[in-house]
Amino acid sequence: MRFLLLFLLFFPVSLQAAYKEDLDYSAFAHIPVLHEGRIKPLDSFARVFLKKMYGDKSLPDEAAISWLAQAMFDPQDAMQEPIFVVRVPEVVSILSLPKRTYAVYSFSEMAAVMGGQEQLIKGLLAKDKKALTADDQELIRLYMNVSDFAEIAGAFSLLLPFPDNPDLTYLDTLKSKEKIDAALKETVKLKGDKIEQYSEEEQRNAKLSYRISVLEALDSHNILLRIIPPAWQGTEEWLSPWAVIENGAGSPASLALFHDWQALAKAYNSDDAASWNALSEKLYQTGVHSPHVRPFSLSLEVFYNAVDPLNRSIIGYIIGVLVTLTYIVLSSRGVAKEWLRIAAYTIILISTGMHGLALLMRVAILMRPPVSTLYESMIFVSFMSSCFGLWMEWKKKGGESLLISGIIASLLIAAANVFAADSDTLEVLVAVLNTNFWLGTHVVCITTGYASALVAGAIAHIYLIKRALGKTEVTALMDLQRRLHSIALVALLFTSVGTMLGGIWADQSWGRFWGWDPKENGALWIVLWLIWALHGRIAGQLREVGFACVMAFITIVVALAWVGVNLLSVGLHSYGFTDVAANSLMVFCGTEIVLIGGVTVMAVRRSKFV
Amino acid sequence: MTKIMTDIRKLAEAFARPTLLFYALPWLMLLLVLGTIAQRYIGLYQSQKIFFGSFVLWVGFFPLPGAYTTLGIIALGLCAKLLLKSPLKKHKAGTLIAHASMLLLLLGGLITAISREEGYMVLGDNDSSHQVLDYHQRELAIIKNGDVVEAIPHGELHIGKVITDPGIPFSITISNYCYQCKATARQNPDISLRGLAAKMDITSAPLDQEDAKNQSGVVFSISGASKEADGSYLSYEALNQQPEFTIGKDKYQVLMRQSERDIPFTIHLLHFDKVEYPGTNVARSYQSQVEVIDGALKWNALIEMNQPLRYRGYTLYQSSFIENDGKLFTVLAVVKNSGALFPYLAVLTLCIGLVIHLIIVFSRKKVL
Predict the structure, then answer these.
(1) Do the chains contact at A223 and B18, CB–CB below 8 Å?
(2) Is A161 exposed, middle or buried (CB count within 10 Å of its CB: 0-12, 13-18, 19+)?
(3) Measured between alpha carbons, how far is A149 from A157 in angstroms, rounded to an integer?
(4) Could you tell me if B158 and B169 are in contact, meaning their C-beta atoms sit under 8 angstroms apart?
(5) Chain-chain contact of B350 with A501 (C-beta, under 8 angstroms)
(6) Using CB atoms within 10 A of its CB, is residue A569 exposed (0-12), middle (13-18) or buried (19+)?
(7) Which of A34, A80, A583, B250 could form a disulfide with A238 if both were Cys (CB 3.0 to 4.6 A apart)?
(8) Of A35, A496, A570, the CB nearest to B39
(9) If 0-12 CB within 10 Å is exposed, 13-18 middle and 19+ buried, where does residue A503 land?
(10) pLDDT of residue A321
(11) Which residues in A lie closer than 8 A to residue B19 (C-beta atoms)?
């Protein structure tokens, strides 16, 4: 119902959304805002919400930051913009939305149908999460997104002119609000509640009073856009414009800010580029000189968003893999082109460099070691895998290590994007994780172990395939075995030391070295698997093919220990993503079992012994 | 005698071979995977007891080696390897140190399993305590004028058990006991039933996945006390009202509760602080400002996440917090563990051992 009210409040609306393409958004994009416990630039805020609503960090013809500016300063036009993507087709029917090829709807369309679904949504929110169907989850997601948009669109409603009175804002009425209400009460007392019996002045007063009360009912609890810095020392709490009024936290500084934001809104709506630029810069300067704001970090984050180095490195990795494959195919036909290998090496090296730069930028933005969430572990493991591959290729030319580098790195970054889903990947940490020492030692060590184990698994795959095809010379196979053994030892070093460091961290935090938590068990499983394979090789129980087969399966062990245990949703470490993971993990494990099983059988048939 | 020695040596040599480890490890991994998956269905505590904390794993009536047995065999193998198959040669230095570190870790695990005491205390601002509540153990406590006369661990309680003690002028006979109970309405009350027992009974219920949520209960009869006090009583953890009776001038309580242990000093909570990230409910840090009181000695200390307080063999950790009616209570984990140092030594030696081994391996030609 409140969505509908918000929509009607800004009625009449223009039918075509008008973008302000000629405005410069660079200073505006840098303005700091407090969101999800972290001070971030408005650019990141815009991207996070657009990703949630639209599924992408930009619209086809508009950047996230200009969409946000429109939602903040020209909400009636922004409400016509189709940005809500319905991902489950059945929900289109449930909500009686018009059917479209690409199911994307505007706020005005969503508000019209969501108003009647509030009871249903409340019931769903009260339900146990495990009992929710895909339709239910999508309904909740859409409801949350529509609510968030309503908050963004209403964040500055106290500073924007009333639609039927362009010279007046809620802020202007603050001092006279009591008088307006008192006058209306007096009128009602004298003339009753029929507005047609009022004088023109009384009617204007009644409409204004109604407008104020509707605005307060809709937006006074609006806290999402925390853009007003703390006015006093000793607090880190930034407030939304409405919260400043509601909490009685106004000060001369906040009033000055209100006037600046008001002027910025005016400049936006009148296409006054000069004022817009000057005011954006002024507001940015005010924001960055507030306590706990690091200007370098804000600029770096805007740069990180714009460059998107991780997704760019995927392209490099894929090109590198294709060039390497061309080199390998030509080599197998006896027409080896060394320059192709060097080109592939260079491309993957540059991609790895960009990847590493992305990790460094994240460290500088968040001021903590590179790995602490599942997403971060994936992008770190992919980086380390690529480094291991490049190192091996440097030591022994042949192209296989470049394939390992490119394939593992690109697949893991893609998987990280899937797991990150709609959330901000630059996030604050819960109390127990908030320790740079253990994040920098245990977590980095164990994820390096995962990377080396995956690289060992990949070498084992190549060995088995070559053995199964039977076209590789014995010396080359022996060489691969030596590499496999060495990298398995590296994996054992990092996983075992990393696991034990994790135990010591647990001892420091929870008072026990080992608690049989699923994540701890998963890490131990990898260590035991590596010990088993290496001792099997030493004991003679595993010959070349057997050792390669066991090491190839380490990919499944790592996947289950790293991501799979989060699916159990138990234990102290169950902070990973779970919803998207199950199917992809099953597909991965199934494919690996068939592939490894198949090539091992073929390799055994070609061998006298295993 | 020589033959016996030869046989022992042969057996030890068999244990020293990596073949033993090759067959023991898959079993250990299977236990690990099954125990991990089982946590989803039976909870961590039960799963740990069955899969990771037992000598025998019973599959129906069929006994299989439990994790303790498997780890014991691996530890014996490690000992045999270090004694019989580990010549002190330069190129074996890394593996020798790494194997020794594993033995150190297993030894630490053994000492921890035998000696570890753990529990927690819940304190509000200005509360003091020298008692620690056990996470899992329950006990039937007999309290006389506020002092515990006897506490019988839940593992020793069974129907028909008779409890007598020189310190109490009556005997207690257990007529019903369950570790996880549910309350039922009593159908046929009689005059010997006292207090809540007159209205309700308890029956055994399926265990909860979280052991802390299991609620133990006991129905017992008192005899030999007095005409007024003799009769049947019920004590159930889920209820606030617990059996009480008076004999002469002495007031007695008999109740089921979480086991309590004394520690040799007192913790007085000066202030508990929970800091959240601004604009969220996400905790950034917890910390407890405490005063440690040990006889005449008093001093202030800070316990926070990842920064425990260590004193007299006890370690106090910032474990959690409880919010009740707007008031915050700190939850401090209290652990005494004689084997706590072993993992620290083990990780250091393992790291040294594996790095030396890798240097040896990589210094050979054509490794990569």
Answers:
(1) no
(2) middle
(3) 13
(4) no
(5) no
(6) middle
(7) A34
(8) A570
(9) buried
(10) 97
(11) 539, 541
Cβ within 8 Å, pair A535-B118: no
Q: What pTM did the predictor assign?
A: 0.86
The residue type found at A584 is: S
CB A375 within 8 A of CB B348: no
Residue of B nearest to A33 (CA): B279
Amino acid identity of residue A237, one-letter, is: E
Q: Do A532 and B29 touch (CB under 8 A)?
A: yes
Q: What one-character DSSP code corresponds to residue B337? A: -
The predicted pLDDT at position B125 comes to 95
Phi, psi of A290 (to 5 degrees): -85, 160
Tokens of B241: 């009202």
CA distance B42 to B44: 7
Best A509, A517, A578 member to test B by mutation, with max B CBs in 10 Å, is: A509
User: Which residues of A fall within a CB distance of 8 Å from B305?
Assistant: 431-432, 434-435, 509
In angstroms, the CA B273 to CA A306 distance is 40
| Interchain contact, B32 vs A35, CB within 8 Å | no
What ranges in chain B are assigned the alpha helix state H?
A: 2-16, 18-47, 67-84, 93-115, 341-363
Rounded alpha-carbon distances, angstroms, from residue A71 to A1, A107, A265, B15:
20, 11, 11, 73
Going from the C-alpha of A74 to that of each of A175, A219, A271, A456, the distances in angstroms are 25, 16, 12, 56
Report the gap between the CA of A18 and the closest CA in chain B (Å).
33
Q: Do A237 and B279 touch (CB under 8 A)?
A: yes
Please name the residues in contact with B293: beta carbons below 8 A apart, sequence gap of 6 or more. Answer: B128, B265, B266, B267, B268
What value, to the nearest 5°, has the Cα angle with vertex A564 and ends A563 and A566?
Answer: 75
DSSP-derived 3-state class of residue A1: coil
Six token digits for residue A248: 């009685």
Mean pLDDT, rounded, for A297-305: 96
CA distance A159 to chain B (A): 22
Classified as helix, coil or strand, A384 is helix
- CA–CA distance, A74 with A69 (Å, rounded to integer): 8
The alpha-carbon gap from A483 to the nearest alpha carbon of chain B, in Å, equals 5
pLDDT surpassing 90 at residue A117: no
Structure token digits, residue B189: 């009350």
A475-496 pLDDT, tens digit per residue, is: 889 999 999 999 999 999 999 9
Angle between helices A134-154 and A200-219 (to 10 degrees): 130
ipTM: 0.85
Question: What DSSP element (H or E) covers B300?
Answer: strand B297-304
Of B280, B340, B347, the CB nearest to A500: B347
Cis peptide before A12 (omega within 30 of 0): yes
- Number of alpha helices (DSSP H) and beta strands (DSSP E) in chain A: 27, 8
Which of B29, B286, B351 has the CB atom closest to A497's CB atom? B351
Annotate B4-30 with b (16+ C-beta within 10 A) or e (fewer): eeeeeeeebeebbbbbbbbebbebbbe
Do B344 and A504 contact (CB within 8 A), yes or no?
A: yes
Asked if B267 and B128 count as a contact pair (C-beta separation under 8 A), the reply is yes
Q: How many residues does chain B have?
A: 368
CB contact under 8 Å between B25 and A396, yes or no, is no
The gap from C-alpha B225 to its chain's centroid, in whole angstroms, comes to 36
- The partner residue sitting opposite A539, judged by closest CB among B17, B354, B358, is B17
pLDDT digits (tens, 9 = 90+) for B176-209: 999 999 988 888 777 778 888 888 889 999 988 8
Whole-angstrom CA distances from B177 to A19, B205, B218, B220 are: 74, 11, 4, 9
Tokens coding B316: 């106090």
Residue in A492, A504, A528 nearest the CB of B28:
A528
Contacts across the A-B interface (CB distance below 8 Å): 171
Query: Best of A426, A531, A562 to disrupt the B interface by mutation (most B CBs within 10 Å)?
Result: A531
